Input
Amino acid sequence: MNDSSDRQTRKPATRTLVIHPYLKRERDNARDPESRLQEAVRLADAIWLHVVYKMTVPLGAIKPATLIGAGKVDEIAALVTEMNIELAIVDYKVSPAQQRNLEKALNCKVIDRTALILEIFGARARTHEGKLQVELASLNYQKSRLVKSWTHLERQRGGFGFLGGPGESQIEIDRRLIRDRISKISGELEGVKRTRELHRKTRRDVPYPVVALVGYTNAGKSTLFNRLTGADVMVKDLLFATLDPTLRNVKLPSGSQIILSDTVGFVSDLPHDLVAAFRATLEEVIEADLILHVRDISHPDSEPQKKDVLEVLGGLLDQDTLDTRMIEVLNKIDNLPQETQENLLERSNDMTIAISAVSGVGIPELLGRIERFVNQHFLETTELSVPVSDGKTLAWLHAHGSIIKKELVDETYHLTVCMTPENIGRYKRLAG
Output
């Protein structure tokens, strides 16, 4: 979908204006408006819109009719005409009435932040479950926005048509059909959920600990996933490059194994319908034994991004879980000055570890911390005696556990071995 040949066959991208309105009274408590504007531009870039102009708009108060004041609306309308803009993205929650009024005043298609994110998710979903989840969220969003589509816009790839398209019939969507479709999708998702639960039960029966990567979108989760697993998960400098969860086995330094899960990135003001629709996906996080919260520590809004992630996680997990089963991974230290890198590395501890998923700095320490967690919570210690001549058994123990003590007495090794309960049982069966 994202290769160069595909880019060559795409039609010219829609000329787009990105507007980030913000309330002046909230300015001191929010992240930098320019940073928020840049994030909105990158969201537009994620579905290959051609952003020809971007602007922040300070608001003294929300205008019920158009969100933005009349004078600024006129100014934007002139800009739309002058620059031949086809689509205006308002990086805010826009009501159906405000959207219709803005479209009439600007004479171009208008979508809000929620519609943009849904459009991206619609373009990114690959699995059957992912597509169902996004469609459910988009239908819930559309229920209150049953208006005729604009027809002069070229459709971008994928998505759910918030951007319109040539030849698209301009008819009112029947609410009953939407309700029926929502009911049907909800039923299908219940079936998918049961299947996922069976898969999780199978994993629990292995049993390997499950470690989930979470974090703000573009924090480097997929790069870290590839670094730890040797996999080839899509890594692009795009927001929401990863949508469907990916699972891989990872062998720790001692030989014990974990299952690593790469999940969808979080973002500020994530549509509530989308969070609800992706509940099944987020269950990978809920069910995880250990959570790695990956942060782009080089980003100017790293702290607000952390807050956004923790707010979503706080609705899924209790505080004790967040305090005891989550490691904060400070990624992209390679983008920081050398002195800052060294300072962060020195301050790394059991709950906060500085790394670079690109260069590999800090990765051994991260694996070591994961292993200590696994040893503390999932492994049991047993005493075994193995003849020196039994190289096959010794090799098996090294491959499936961690030998923490070894004494040689009369051609026999007396071992203290750390293994999963299942591997201890397997050893006993193998040894008769």
Remarks:
- The chain has a mean pLDDT of 81.
